[in-house]
Amino acid sequence: MFIIIAGAGIVGRSMTKILSENHDVVVIDPDYDSCEKISTKYGAVAIQGDATKIATLRDAGIEKCDYAIGVMGEDSKNLLFALLSKDHGVNEIFVRMRDPEYRHAYQLAGATNIGHMVAMMVNKFVLDIENPDIRSVAPSAGERRKSALLLSVRPLQSQVCQSRISQAARSFLQTSSSPECSIPKRMSSSCREGRRS
């Protein structure tokens, strides 16, 4: 995949570190030192410039871009980046949203994935407080980009601790005495039909 990331702050650098291992990544940032760090540390192409300028986006290769990711510090800049990316035919446009009042504008501008950092953090903290038995749902080591998930529960001696969600679901179905099942359809077709395997 060919990916353009607008913004070389913490989020942009972190994404570049992971994505540049398997994809062609171009990062755009106005700060020379940030571009130099991206280029030397991760081997990604870094362009010192303004990602809200058409000429800079063309230099970055926007016409062949599969994913455009706007993670600059201001919603107004990410919004313009999304709009220009859409105008250049990019189908997958991801943006970081700081102020939720921008959500509708991002949708109008063509953003296909809107990440609200505050909402993600609040949701994680609330989940940890209200469901203390669920420790984490995270990519498994070595399979991060294959969407393999682990379910970690307390107590650590639990039968499903450190299991993949599909394994935990099967274990639940095998040990559950309830005829009803609350596992989503796409996780278990036998669950949908009321069978336990």
Structure, briefly:
The chain is an alpha/beta fold. It has helices at residues 10-19, 32-42, 54-60, 75-87, 103-108, 117-130, 165-175, 189-192, and strands at residues 2-6, 24-29, 45-48, 67-70, 92-97, 113-116, 134-139, 149-153, 163-164. It has two domains: 2-120, 3-Layer(aba) Sandwich (Rossmann fold), CATH 3.40.50; 131-192, no CATH class.
Main sheet: strands, sense, barrel: 6 strands, parallel
Helix content: 25-40%
Shape: globular
Order of secondary-structure elements: EHEHEHEHEHEHEEEHH
Measured between the Cα atoms of the first and last residue, the distance is 39 Å
Q: Count of helical segments?
A: 8
Strand-pairing-aware structural class: alpha/beta
Structure description:
- It is built from eight helices and nine strands.
- The chain has two domains: 119 residues, NAD(P)-binding Rossmann-like Domain (Rossmann fold, 3-Layer(aba) Sandwich), CATH 3.40.50.720; 62 residues, no CATH class.
- The strands form two sheets. A six-stranded parallel sheet has the order 3-2-1-4-5-6, with helices on both faces. The protein has a three-stranded antiparallel sheet with strand order 7-8-9.
- The chain starts with a strand and ends in a 5-residue tail after the last helix.
- Helices cover 39% and strands 21% of the residues.
- The protein is globular, with a radius of gyration of 21 Å.
- The chain is of the alpha/beta class and 197 residues long.
- The longest helix is centred in the middle third of the chain and has 14 residues.
